[in-house]
Amino acid sequence: MTDHYTRRETLAVTGSTLLLAGCTSESSSEKVEQSPSEIVNAWLNEHESTEQDAVEQYSAGNEALEAGDYSSAIVLFERATNKYESLEKAVGDETRNHENGSEVWEILSTLGQYYAFMRRAATWRYSAAYERSVNDDPAASTEALETSNARFERAEELKKEFQVMLDE
Predict the structure, then answer these.
(1) Which pLDDT score, from 0 to 100, does residue 31 have?
(2) What is the pLDDT of residue 13?
(3) 8-55 per-position pLDDT tens digit
(4) Which candidate, 115, 109, 113, places its Cα nearest to that of 40?
């Protein structure tokens, strides 16, 4: 029941957002208009600890699931789901502060989709652990893992799109 995504791969995909959060601030009496990347990086910096917690919970949940510690995996994936849901809501709130179709809006919308797919991946992993722990149903657990993997793969694609948009 091992997942083909190692902890290192999970951290590489989801943790790269943290590297992008290196926003610089200028101390000047006049207000300098920020670029879309600076605006997004500032938002990422503000939410860095929540994202780091989500990544850690998701990774620890994977480790517990692979080790057959399903009850721990359930708790960890529930926490990861809640963290990604919180990030999804926060980025949605920030997106509404920007003009629909603007570059900032597009970048934040893509980031929000990424968080949504990570939340779904964590939720399906929760279901996989639950099916093993509570229902003792390996077939249902395997099906839930396959669905989770598909959500995770889509999140990876969105993360790459996000990084390209942020670099432009």
Answers:
(1) 57
(2) 47
(3) 444 444 444 544 444 444 444 455 788 999 999 999 999 999 999 999
(4) 109
